[in-house]
Amino acid sequence: MIDRILAGVALAALASTSAFATEDPTEAAFRATYKELVETNTTRSAGSCTLAAQRMGAHLTAAGFADRQITYFATPENPKEGGLVAILPGTSKTEKPILLLGHLDVVEAKRADWTRDPFTLVEENGYFWARGTFDDKAMVSVWVDTFARLKAGHVKLRRTLKLALTCGEETSGAFNGAQWLAKNKRDLIDAEFALNEGGGGITDGKGLVEGGHITAMSVQVGEKASQDYRVETRNPGGHSSIPVRDNAIYQLSDALLRLRDFDFPAELNDTTRAFFARSGAARGGPIGAAMQTVATAAPDSPAFKQAVALLDHDRSMHSTLRTTCVATMLDGGHATNALPQRAGAIVNCRIFPGHSFAEINASLTKVFNDPGVTVTTNDPDHPLAKAPPMDPKIIGPIETLSARYFPGVPLVPTMSTGATDGIYLEAVGIPTYGAPGIWANPDLNGIHGLNEHLEVASLLKGRAFLYDLVLAYAK
């Protein structure tokens, strides 16, 4: 995604382009690599992660990496969904490596829906515009840039660094490179811990270029596991001219309404407890006080329950406090003039770390409270979530650099209620953390939607922050 050491010819050509002209040659190279990666289509329908990996690998080779230090991978069944692993050796024989992880693939984008061509990088009004400008080609570019700068600059490192660029993060059921590496090449990516997407900053609603401010920086420490369940009812059916109350669709509807009115119990782990404590102190007011109460009060105390009741009015806090399950798809019936013989729904659950898929299946069955409603656990495409530790050796350098780069901005640990490829690494014993540094507006700048964009200052300052963070761990 970004690499920084470009061939002299390419650099000279790009330096003449006003949109990317800069007095800093390393920034010019970084921008050029970022542009190349963003403009490499890596959608599942029409793109190629394999091509993107080859292009990023070419930058690493230009920076001085030997062929033996770069491993390209792809399977015969998924030739366009490949990736790479690069290794930058350190001098220590005892300390385990650090892994930098990023995904090359992006969400689909239709030109007819976008204001600009989603696969042409445009710099306009202080923002970069295109699919993948943020998710996740910003971080991938920074990681490639970091590797290239360290190699080309002959920087002496104590700890070995590894870089894994993978495909398949954005599409459930697709070939997933991080999952494949964890299963088939565990030794290749072995590390004490990994840095990944998932962290970052949030503004007050406007970018800095528009006079806004960064209100918080977060480091992701853990995530929920996503799992789908098939909920189904069956019935003998019959002719629609003689209806009865015993109807598969009605029965399913009643079950889903019980799910709508159900909340899993509130719970905390080290990450979410620290999140509520620090965020509450920074926020203040009744909500801030409730957040601090949740972080400190006994879970069975009236104070805890009252605080949860208040926080549950915020959908994000409600989700952070528990497992959630929601109906996302429906099907039913076989003819317009017949009583339905079958009705079904997909219920998507985001499972708090520490609970099994079978346990949530049992909970749903209990909520529905109807022997005629079956709950089937769909084949899991994610492992169970394992929360990494709040290790001071890892969190400490992030806190130090965050205070230097973003003075006065609180740093808070967060547990993602979504999903990243970190879940595959954590399942095989590699704790994975979402690094901060790059920021977005509260609307997430069109990630997964229309007209995705990223503030130029966010990318450039994030690049500097993440480079220094890697050095803090490895030098």
Short description:
The chain is α/β, with parallel strands linked by helices. It is built from 14 helices and 19 strands.
Structure description:
By secondary structure, this protein is of the alpha/beta class. The chain folds into 3 domains: about 10-225 and about 385-475, Zn peptidases (Aminopeptidase); about 225-265 and about 325-375, Alpha-Beta Plaits, CATH 3.30.70.360; about 270-320, no CATH class. Helices cover about 35% and strands about 20% of the residues. It has helices spanning about 10-15, 25-40, 50-65, 135-150, 175-185, 250-260, 270-285, 285-295, 300-310, 315-320, 355-370, 390-405, 420-425, 455-475; strands spanning about 70-75, 80-90, 100-105, 120-125, 125-130, 160-165, 195, 200-205, 215-225, 225-235, 240, 325-330, 340, 340-350, 375, 410-415, 430-435, 440, 455. Strands 1, 2, 3, 6, 7, 8, 9, 16, 17 and 18 form a 10-stranded mixed beta sheet that branches. A 4-stranded antiparallel beta sheet has the order 12-14-10-15. Strands 4-5-19 form a 3-stranded antiparallel beta sheet. Helix 3 packs parallel to helix 4. About 45% of the residues are buried.
